[in-house]
Amino acid sequence: MPAVVKCPTCGTEVAWVTENKFRPFCSERCKQIDLGAWASEKYVIGGKPGETSPDRSEDEDD
Questions:
Q1: Of 8, 28, 36, 48, which one is least surrounded by beta carbons within 10 A?
Q2: List of E strands, 1-62
Q3: In terms of pTM, does the model score above 0.85?
Q4: CA-CA distance, 56 to 1, in Å (whole number)?
Q5: Is the domain covering 4-39 a CATH 3.50.50.60 domain?
Q6: Residue 57 predicted with pLDDT over 80
Q7: Helices and strands in the chain: count of H runs, count of E runs
């Protein structure tokens, strides 16, 4: 039985299967709404530009 997740945009339950090319979203529309939210900076990742996370030292190689 495939896992079921909720679409991050609308909350519709979505089966987590390879046939769903929009996963974790339920549709292309919800995927685009989410992308638009990132583009308009509704979502941000915390921190200051150039700041490294506390668990990663500056001299680590990527």
A1: 48
A2: 4-6, 13-15
A3: no
A4: 38
A5: no
A6: no
A7: 1, 2
Residue ranges of the binding site for Zn(2+): 7, 10, 26, 30
Rounded-to-integer distance, Cα 33 and Cα 51, Å: 29
8 close to 24: Cβ distance less than 8 angstroms? yes
Reported confidence tier of residue 49, pLDDT bands at 50, 70, 90: confident
Query: Contact, 23 vs 16, CB < 8 A?
Result: yes
Tens digit of each residue's pLDDT (9 = 90 or more) over 22-42: 999 999 999 999 999 999 989
Question: Which residues are annotated binding-site positions?
Answer: 7, 10, 26, 30
Max Cα–Cα distance, the chain, nearest Å: 45
